[in-house]
């Protein structure tokens, strides 16, 4: 049955040359990104704007740390979603349940006041988004055989859906936030995710049975132990919050430490497992330098939602023919370039076929380009209010986009190819852990950003990313040897 399904999927080219089933995952991910980026586009502003402006009045560094910690927690929670998929119910079912949890989180942000709404809403959205992310990627991977040359192009098309939602979300929530208030913006995010849930509920049956397979079923006798651990973990977190160990000011540091611990544990569990053979183990080792490069990239890239938001609010000239562009609209610039360029990149990779650069080369170039993007801030360093032209930020975000397309869709694709059979979805979660770590670091770094002395900040971080990329570029051959035929 599985082989016949694979053959049928390979022959199916109804969705822009890709399997028609891709449209269902494309749709739910598009609406999830609409709600995610729509909410995140106004979240930092909500946290640090004063009460008279409708916000909560937190210090900028604390607000940035919360946003970074929340973003990191989203990707950190992919571990839970991946584990439940691989051990209990399969990727497709986790994807569906996660969409429901996300809707609940956005509703909480829209309806519950103050820090209660922020706490409940962000926890639910983080859990749901983490479950959806890893499993949506895994489900897309089930639509292709290992040697299907359309695979990278299919992931790039999937990435296009993500960015259609990411483009529209900040624009529409930004309009509502600036005209009606923050909670109306959060409410629109809830409506968008509800549309995604409804759309997916009708299309999910068309996905292949492989998407529902549980690759490493948990024995029934261990279910009570899982329940006890889950309750204990929730209780421990509640106690740490109540006694003040976990607080707003140190959230990003806690998420960084938690992600590092989870990463070490995950690599150890996979590499020491008796369920993988020597080839699979070598490929996991080959993934390690890609993981490190990914962390360096995301720690800069995710500052779109921390430092760049602060920069756009205080330093960017947002006047367009007498109209002041809402701050969240800046976050829609990158998705526009993704929409334009993702098809170009997909076409280039498809045309080059086996002649395209290897994955380590793409990753190395992505980190170098991202570092260069940070150096492009230097000519505008030290300027006053409204001193940075909007066109300059547009150009810098174009460079952000080129770097992203060299790493993000390529990373999703190579992870599914390097993944051991027994750890398919959990390997995808490991890639998301690199994003979790980079995102949490992006929030932690806000404390070092000084608008009156920007040169050290942008030059040091840009230089580090370039060095990491150069290191991988010089290590391409040994990394490819470890990847054992995956390129």
Summary keywords:
single chain, 487 residues, mainly alpha, Growth Hormone, Chain: A, two-stranded antiparallel ribbon, 18 helices, globular, MFS_dom, POT_fam, peptide transmembrane transporter activity, MFS_trans_sf
The rough form would be described as globular
CATH topological fold name: Growth Hormone, Chain: A
Sheet with most strands: 2 strands, antiparallel
Give the strand line-up of the largest sheet. Answer: 1-2
Q: Give the class from helix and strand content and strand pairing.
A: mainly alpha
Unreliable spans are: none
Order of helices and strands: HHHHHHHHHHHHEEHHHHHH
In CATH, the homologous superfamily goes by the name MFS general substrate transporter like domains
Family: Belongs to the major facilitator superfamily. Proton-dependent oligopeptide transporter (POT/PTR) (TC 2.A.17) family.
GO molecular function: peptide transmembrane transporter activity
Main location: membrane
InterPro entries: Dipep/tripep_permease, MFS_dom, MFS_trans_sf, MFS_Transporters, POT_fam, PTR2_symporter_CS
In brief, what are we looking at here?
One of its GO terms (molecular function) is peptide transmembrane transporter activity. By secondary structure, the protein is mainly alpha-helical.
Would you write up a description of this structure?
By secondary structure, the protein is mainly α. The protein has a single domain, classed as Growth Hormone, Chain: A (Up-down Bundle). Helix content is 73%, strand content 1%. It contains 18 helices and two strands. The protein has helices spanning 2-11, 22-48, 60-76, 78-89, 91-111, 114-141, 151-179, 182-203, 223-242, 251-272, 278-301, 307-314, 333-352, 359-375, 390-418, 424-444, 455-473, 476-483, and strands at 319-320, 323-324. It has a two-stranded antiparallel ribbon with strand order 1-2. Helix 2 packs parallel to helix 7 (151-179), helix 4 (78-89) crosses helix 6 and helix 14 (359-375) packs antiparallel against helix 15 (390-418). The two termini are 29 Å apart. It holds the Pfam family PTR2. It is found in: Cell membrane; Membrane. It is a multi-pass membrane protein. One of its GO terms (cellular component) is plasma membrane.
């Amino acid at each position: 049955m599985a082989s016949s399904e694979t053959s049928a999927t390979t022959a199916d080219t109804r969705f822009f040359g890709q399997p028609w089933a891709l449209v269902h995952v494309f749709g739910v991910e598009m609406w999830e990104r609409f709600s995610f980026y729509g909410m995140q586009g106004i979240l930092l502003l909500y946290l640090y704007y004063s009460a008279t402006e409708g916000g909560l009045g937190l210090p900028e560094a604390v607000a940035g740390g919360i946003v970074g910690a929340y973003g990191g927690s989203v990707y950190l929670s992919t571990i839970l979603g991946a584990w439940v998929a691989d051990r209990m119910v399969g990727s497709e079912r986790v994807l569906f349940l996660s969409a429901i949890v996300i809707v609940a989180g956005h509703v909480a942000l829209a309806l519950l006041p103050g820090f209660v709404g922020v706490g409940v809403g962000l926890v639910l959205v983080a859990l749901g988004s983490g479950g959806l992310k890893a499993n949506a990627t895994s489900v897309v991977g089930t639509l292709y055989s290992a040697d299907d040359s359309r695979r990278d192009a299919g992931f790039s098309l999937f990435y296009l859906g993500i960015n259609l939602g990411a483009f529209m979300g900040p624009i529409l929530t930004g309009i509502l936030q600036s005209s009606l208030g923050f909670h109306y913006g959060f409410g629109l995010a809830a409506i968008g995710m509800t549309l995604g849930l409804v759309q997916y509920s009708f299309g999910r049956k068309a996905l292949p049975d492989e998407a529902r397979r549980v690759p490493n079923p948990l024995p029934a006798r261990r279910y009570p132990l899982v329940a006890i651990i889950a309750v204990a973990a929730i209780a421990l977190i509640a106690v740490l919050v109540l006694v003040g160990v976990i607080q707003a000011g140190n959230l990003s540091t806690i998420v960084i430490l938690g992600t590092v611990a989870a990463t070490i544990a995950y690599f150890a569990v996979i590499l020491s497992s008796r369920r993988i053979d020597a080839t699979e183990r070598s490929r996991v080792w080959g993934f390690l330098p890609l993981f490190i490069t990914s962390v360096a990239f995301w720690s800069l890239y995710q500052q779109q939602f921390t430092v760049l938001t602060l920069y756009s609010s205080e330093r960017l000239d947002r006047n367009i023919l007498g109209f002041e562009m809402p701050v969240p609209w800046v976050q829609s610039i990158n998705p526009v370039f993704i929409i334009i360029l993702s098809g170009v990149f997909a076409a280039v990779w498809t045309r080059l076929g086996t002649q395209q650069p290897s994955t380590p080369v793409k990753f190395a170039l992505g980190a170098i380009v991202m570092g260069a993007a940070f150096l492009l801030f230097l000519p505008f360093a030290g300027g006053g209010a409204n001193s940075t032209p909007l066109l300059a930020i547009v150009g810098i975000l174009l460079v952000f986009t080129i770097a992203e397309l060299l790493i993000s869709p390529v990373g999703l694709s190579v992870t599914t190819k390097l993944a051991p059979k027994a750890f398919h979805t959990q390997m995808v979660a490991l890639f998301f852990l690199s994003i979790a770590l980079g995102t949490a670091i992006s929030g932690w770094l806000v404390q070092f950003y000084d608008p009156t002395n920007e040169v050290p900040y942008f030059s040091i971080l840009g230089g580090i990313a370039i060095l990491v990329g150069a290191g991988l570029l010089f290590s391409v051959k040994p990394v490819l040897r470890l990847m054992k035929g995956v390129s």
